[in-house]
Structures are given as structure tokens and as C-alpha cells.
Design a protein that fits this description.
mainly alpha, 4 helices, 0% strand, elongated
Length: 110
């Protein structure tokens, strides 16, 4: 669950960096700063996925990524796509951890 969600956050950081390049031509410096802060927080949050606060901050960053669509219109779609991947990482990761726990319970390590 942690690895999958951390990889989603890392990929989002790269996509946000490219969105900053798109916003560079027509927007002010504050828009670029906002995008840079989101990209940096996405990378830093990938390391927080061991704790519950990582999931909370990650969910807030999903909203921030979608809201960047106000400045770069395509980010509405890309942000929603990554929000879907974020939810999928949570659901699939939980199922995977449950299956792993069951396998470890059935077959002890040698």
C-alpha cells in the first residue's frame, strides 16, 4: 500500500513540474510558486506514507493538484486521473496487505 501510493505521489510531482512549464508563459510568478510548492510537497509526502498523516496530506495534495487546473486547464483532467490512481492505490494496497497477512498467518516463515 505504501509503495504504490508513494509511486503515485512521485509521478504526480513530475507531472506537476511539467505543468509548471506550461504555466510559465502566461501566468505570474505566484502561480509558478504555487505549482512548485505542490511538486515539492508531493515528493516529500512520498516519504511520509508510513504514517497516517501521509494519507491525509496526500489527499489534500490531490485536491491542490486538481485546483491547479484553474491556471493550466489540462490539470483538471490530469489531477482527476491521479486522484483516481490515489484511490486505487489505497483500495488495492489494502487488499494486497490483507492477502499478505493471511498468507503469513497460514504459512510461518522458516
Amino acid at each position: 500500500m505504501r509503495v504504490l501510493s508513494a509511486s503515485v505521489l512521485a509521478m504526480e510531482a513530475f507531472v506537476m513540474a511539467f505543468a509548471i512549464l506550461l504555466a510559465m508563459g502566461e501566468n505570474s510568478g505566484s502561480v509558478l510558486t504555487y505549482g512548485g510548492i505542490i511538486a515539492i510537497l508531493l515528493l516529500l509526502n512520498a516519504g511520509l506514507m508510513k504514517k497516517k498523516i501521509g494519507w491525509v496530506v496526500g489527499s489534500i495534495l490531490q485536491i491542490a493538484m486538481i485546483s491547479y487546473g484553474y491556471f493550466v486547464t489540462s490539470m483538471y483532467f490530469v489531477g482527476a486521473l491521479f486522484a483516481g490512481l490515489w484511490i486505487a492505490a489505497y483500495v488495492v494496497g489494502r487488499k494486497g496487505e490483507a492477502i499478505r497477512a493471511e498468507l503469513l498467518r497460514q504459512k510461518p516463515l522458516k
